Amino acid sequence: MNYKIAPSILNADFWNLEKEIKAVQCGGADFLHLDVIDGQFAPSISFGPTVIESIRKHCHLVFDVHLMIHEPGKYIPDFVNAGADIITIHAEGNYHLHRLVHQIKSYNKKAGVALNPATPISAIQYLINDLDMVLVMTVNPGFGGQPFIPNVLPKISELKELIEKKNAKVDIEVDGGITPAEAKMCADAGANVFVVGSYIFKNKAFDDKKRAVETIREALCAI
């Protein structure tokens, strides 16, 4: 399995953001996960396309942009122009999900759909072959540092079965409370992309963010 690690900068030290991003790059990160929160769809407010554009000028990683915002269709062009490679929108509240997915793909970007913990797989069942990625939230969106919700593990397995049944080429990403132990459990259930925030950027056991990324990789390689 080709596992991908996506450090989330939501919990990074923005005073030292350049240093933090360089450290995770050196640690072997594959994606940079960028949580865009508007304070309406989910609590908290993070950052927008201007910050992403600034980082894009200096970072070679795949930009995995997760939009937790109302009416994402209005802003998709802004995030495309800012340098997004993958744009993920939420199933919840977006009644024209098919249209939004194909809006993203019209810019030759990969399209993902995120599912909150209480949202069933059936929400994207008939869209699965149009997607590049499904993001299974393992916490409720809005804040970093929340504990992993283990009841979501069967949903990952169910999603994996759906993808195989439909012969779809879709990555399964997990986000929320991911440590080496949770990464291993999610990988066993079928996930292959791991968003890691607090464990990398807030963990006092690691002065070196590079080493934090490496421990996630080691846990996955041990499977």
From TrEMBL:
Originating gene: rpe
Q: Which GO terms describe its cellular component?
A: cytoplasm
Identify the residues that bind substrate: S8, H66, G142, F143, G144, G145, D175, G176, G177, G197, S198
Cofactors demanded by this protein: Mn(2+); a divalent metal cation; Co(2+); Zn(2+)
What molecular functions are annotated in GO for this chain? Answer: D-ribulose-phosphate 3-epimerase activity; metal ion binding
Q: Which pathway or pathways does this protein act in?
A: Carbohydrate degradation
Query: Which GO terms fall under biological process for this protein?
Result: pentose catabolic process; pentose-phosphate shunt
Report the active site residues. Answer: D35 (proton acceptor), D175 (proton donor)
Q: Which PROSITE patterns match?
A: RIBUL_P_3_EPIMER_2
**Signal sequence region:** none
NCBIfam families with a match to the protein in the record: PRK05581.1-4 (NF004076), rpe (TIGR01163)
Protein name per UniProt: Ribulose-phosphate 3-epimerase
Sequence positions that bind a divalent metal cation: H33, D35, H66, D175
Q: Which controlled-vocabulary keywords does the entry list?
A: Carbohydrate metabolism, Cobalt, Isomerase, Manganese, Metal-binding, Zinc
Note describing how the cofactor binds: Binds 1 divalent metal cation per subunit.
UniProt lists the family membership as follows: Belongs to the ribulose-phosphate 3-epimerase family.
UniProt function note: Catalyzes the reversible epimerization of D-ribulose 5-phosphate to D-xylulose 5-phosphate.
Q: Known EC number(s)?
A: 5.1.3.1
Instruction: Note the SUPFAM superfamilies from the entry.
Output: Ribulose-phoshate binding barrel (SSF51366)
Q: Which reaction does it catalyse?
A: D-ribulose 5-phosphate = D-xylulose 5-phosphate
Organism listed in the record? Caldibacillus debilis GB1
